[in-house]
């Protein structure tokens, strides 16, 4: 039987560490510093990262390591960060997004946006799976 290479919905911290070439302690530290980086946890309490989380981590890595931003500078850049869906189109911001000049998204808005993005990602995954199975 031919093996189908299906992209996973969730990755462990060790897998993300290998994918991003970052140590696990760095990922945990960045999670404490960047509000947008909040991986879910499974029933066992282990972090589970989505493809959107990995894209964000790679963006943060680029800001800090290549573009030489400080953590505070990277946080300011990320205020305007719009995660992309798997198809490459940018997700919509919530209508009452942060006011101009704000340095952080309003409380309660990031999880809503994240949930919407996760649902879009899951829909795309299921559509691709259906195409492969038919």
Q: How would you describe the shape?
A: globular
Mean pLDDT score: 77
| Share of β-strand residues | under 5%
List low-confidence stretches: 1-5, 85-110
What fold name stands as the CATH topology? Multidrug-efflux Transporter Regulator, Chain: A, Domain 2
Number of continuous helical runs: 5
Question: What is the CATH top level name?
Answer: Mainly Alpha
Radius of gyration: 16 Å
Distance between the termini: 15 Å
CATH architecture: Orthogonal Bundle
| Helix content estimate | 40-55%
Largest sheet: 2 strands, antiparallel
* Strand order in the largest sheet: 1-2
Number of spatially distinct domains = 1
* Class by alpha and beta content: mainly alpha
Give the topology string: H per helix, E per strand.
HHEEHHH
Total count of strands: 2
């Amino acid at each position: 039987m031919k093996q189908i290479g299906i992209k996973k919905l969730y990755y462990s911290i060790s897998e993300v560490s290998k994918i991003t070439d970052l140590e696990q302690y760095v990922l945990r530290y960045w999670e404490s510093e960047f509000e947008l980086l909040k991986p879910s946890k499974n029933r066992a309490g282990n972090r589970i990262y989505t493809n959107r989380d990995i894209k964000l981590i790679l963006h943060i890595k680029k800001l800090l390591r290549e573009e030489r931003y400080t953590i505070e500078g990277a946080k300011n850049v990320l205020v305007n960060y719009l995660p992309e869906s798997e198809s490459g189109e940018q997700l919509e911001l919530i209508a009452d997004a942060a006011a101009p000049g704000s340095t952080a998204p309003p409380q309660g808005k990031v999880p809503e946006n994240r949930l919407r993005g996760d649902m879009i990602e899951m829909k795309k995954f299921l559509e691709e799976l259906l195409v492969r199975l038919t």
